[in-house]
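The freezer alarm interrupted the setup, so I double-checked each line after restarting. Inputs confirmed:
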Amino acid sequence: MPYIDDARGAAGGSEDLSDAWGRVRRRLRAELGEDVFSSWFGRLECDGLAAGTARLSVPTRFLKSWIESHYADRVLAVFKAEHAAVSRVAFFVRGAVTREMPVAARPSEPATAPARAAAPVVARPRVADEARESTSEKAAAPDLADDSAANALDPRLTFSTFIVGRSNALAHAAADRIARHDGGAPLYNPLYLHAGVGLGKTHLMQAIAHEAQGRGKRVIYLTADRFMYGFVASLKAQTALAFKERLRGIDMLVIDDVQFLQGKSIQQEFGHTINALLDAGRQIVVAADRPPSDLEALDERVRSRLAGGLVVEMCPLDEELRSRILSMRIAAVQALHPAFEVPEAVVAYVARVIATNGRDLDGAVNRLLAHATLTGSPLTVETAEAAVRDLVRTRDPKRVKIEDIQKLVAGRYNVSRADLLSERRTAAVVKPRQIAMYLSKVLTLRSLPEIGRRFGGRDHTTVLHAVRKIEKAVGDDPALNEEVELLKRMLQE
Ligand SMILES: Nc1ncnc2c1ncn2[C@@H]1O[C@H](COP(=O)(O)OP(=O)(O)OP(=O)(O)O)[C@@H](O)[C@H]1O
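Predicted 3D structure, all chains:
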């Protein structure tokens, strides 16, 4: 069970918290839009409630600090509205070992699915606990000088537990070839995997690292934020040279979530590291949530080097693959809970309705287990439907393009798209232009400078001004609010 010390009596315990958490997620998704929600909150889990504080966890420090600085108040307000016992929210980074089962998922032990190994992940003993923020900072520099890489990988994320289907066959084949490649120049260098949230990138990346390590290769697996913290900490500790040497003296660098690389000097260092490794014929494997050309924060030269090997997209999991992943997860749970019975029809139902990603499939199995354990009654399609309701999305998130926003807004306000990009400053053009910029910010993952470029080469401060202005205007003017909401819906359909 999640730890609920004060809420048990008043709020009805874990089921209540779990329901509230489902509603919090749904409201955040509705309020912030699918893109923002899945970028920042897709991996947020509620681990419990104690002394009025809801404990929320994310897999990386970067996500933690971003959510804390941009969304903490909003999350708190929504949580308070949905659960009377919540008066505070606290964010944590899930550690490889200390990770708790998510809220609806802990009727009994243990996690049913490979928890994402959020921890530093390489060259670091598995006792790593990223929740110990301040102390782990200091430990970052020496971590990379330690050679116990294998210990830090999640032992469950291997090729043997990775299920291959149409959507990931190419990525799997390339990963497999690279991991088993012995001797000679690397085959595809770098291998760049990209996919939306929860489609198996980390699993495949860790599988490569496991396999190559097992073959005696010196491998480092890092998340981008781990790279950043490691580098910054080594600079502080004046061990930057050792850090660089350590990174460059390996056979394979596996680096996850590169879309999070931030900061000029860090990017430069990343670029140098990539170049040095590629030039020395060492294998690099990179994963991100977008193709290299969309890594706007990265220097053009680094982007083109990343794109210079094999770039493979992992597509959404099809129903057949989802069903096989579910069956495997259920079998893993049954090894520990032999009484946990899931009829074929329930597996088929869940595989059909949870069309999003592997993480939601894990969540569904956890909820089924919670339901079965708490009620003691057999699972049916009806009870499964209630148990996984909060995970079901009516449709897949759609990627909205700035161009589509411009076309729709221009059409709606009787101006041309060229007007929106022009220098014209008449009210008839300025308002739709600002609305289009605002929608570009809230519906796409584009940065302010990129949006500025797409609107006739404007400065990012102009975009920021437009975003703030429309944000305020929709708050003050219900008619405009409705108008903007309608445009959002039309774009997302
Ligand atoms: N083909 C697969 N076979 C088995 N498990 C899978 C597969 N694809 C995804 N999963 C499982 O789904 C969950 C999410 O996958 P993973 O963490 O690798 O996603 P990701 O693409 O790295 O997501 P993110 O963008 O959030 O980092 C994990 O538990 C993973 O084991």
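Quick read of the result. The pocket of adenosine-5'-triphosphate is lined by residues 43, 113-114, 116, 161-163, 168, 195, 197-203, 289, 325, 358-359, 362 (CB under 6 Å).
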